[in-house]
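Example: UDENN domain-containing protein.
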Amino acid sequence: MASPSRSLSAHNGHEWIRCLCLVNFDLVEGPRVVETWPEGALSSEEAPVLARISFPDFAPQGWHEEAYMLRYCIGGAWTHGAALFRREWDEASARNQGAQCVICVLSFLAFFGLLASLARTAAEAIATGGGLHELLSCIRAWPAPSELQSRAAWLPLPRYARLLFWRPPEEENDSPLSPLPPLSPPRPCSVWDEAAVFDSQPLDHVARGACAVMPEEEACCRGHGRYGDWNPFCFGEKLELLWSCWELLLAGESLLILGEGPAQASDCALALATLLGPLPLLAEERAGDGGLDLQPHFTVYDAHFQRLRATLASSDTCQMSGMLLGTANPIFRQKPFDNFPYTLDLSEAAPTSPLGPVRELLRGVSGLTSCDGLKRGSLAKYVPGVLRQSPEILGELARIAASGGDDEEVKRAAAQLLLRGHFSEILRNLLEPLKTLFAASYELPVVGMEEAWLQEQNLQPVGRFAEPFCSRSAALALYAALLRGPFGPWLSQYLWSISQHDDVTSTPTSTPSGIFSCVTPNSRRQMGVFL
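Written out as structure tokens, the predicted fold is:
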């Protein structure tokens, strides 16, 4: 069955969003959902879960507003949301904490960019005394998501002087199939893409004829793909580690991102997830097990926290494959989380050399400088060393960041396109040699024998994975990690399906040994091809 986050047509009844929620922090009871629009949208089981995971579990007094993404699973169904945390100081309040609240917009559809815009609109409505029922009415007047699978549309919010531009997620044609995102021009290849970013313009320029009821005021006009805007500069001075982080996730390693706040941690996690597309990072897209995989806002109240802590304490490497977590809680610097395979600490409290004694273990590895700054825990199984930073790309990003003008959205959009195109090319280089290997069969090599199998098949790396960029042995080590990692079964069956595109109705006569019961060109959207 297709996940509701993967198919527009699978979304029935709730249309674009499930509900809007207001979560307040009570000094006695802790966070709790105080209002939902419409009423009764959350069950008695789900409301306390949302209250716990939506509220930051670490909120320094300097914070006033943070926006981040979250996702959780109840009864096997995944809900995606955007959360906006706000604090208003009140000198008369107990412990001088002030009023703290979180505004959440929840949906079964994983369109975080759209949800983030709606969360800010809802916050404005609450701050100005406007009713959220009007916001819901505006949203319900939009065309159904299933009607916009193949066309762009304006999504007006006239009550709030805002006009959103919807561009549907890019879909591949049934034939011919291609596993690779296009190189030029870059376009959305995963759910964490924003189709376009536009600067604010007067409505008479962007909406003439699109919506007669829109007031003549400034409108926020932003294009939304499956997910939304991600900030390429969220890594700060550690942007050069992007290549090593990408390689680690590709190899099936787990990565913990410690940010100064949940917004930075969430942005970094979504940026990496975007650049991995079209590989399926979400566990429910790979195996439907609802396991821990991507959590851009991971807190100590998450249902998987205790299990993760027990796993790290027991040094069980079997359950540490393919996790990408974002958090701001300093508890994750303590034991047993120092065993986490890899940690990227972006906070000001990070030590000057977070790599510490691990630096000696990595001496002589190709591309050492590209992983300098990543803390390697005892459960790490793969050492990055194939991909090096691109000085040209880093230089261009620096020029974009330092360019004149105050329009940060335009700078971010330019950086997004640059990085998407760059990593699309790297991904094309990586997957090209694998196409011939899986043309006849989707069966993976025996676990532990991947490198020997690749040698036997005489795999020849190309592009960034060929000499003189890296040694053949290092490239084969990455390919071996890729095939035995969480992406291996998906990739083998996906690449095999490409060779079958001449017969789009064909079905495998035997059950694959991987995690899917069958994979045909007609069913690939149910596999999460674009994630």
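The two ends are 16 Å apart (CA to CA).
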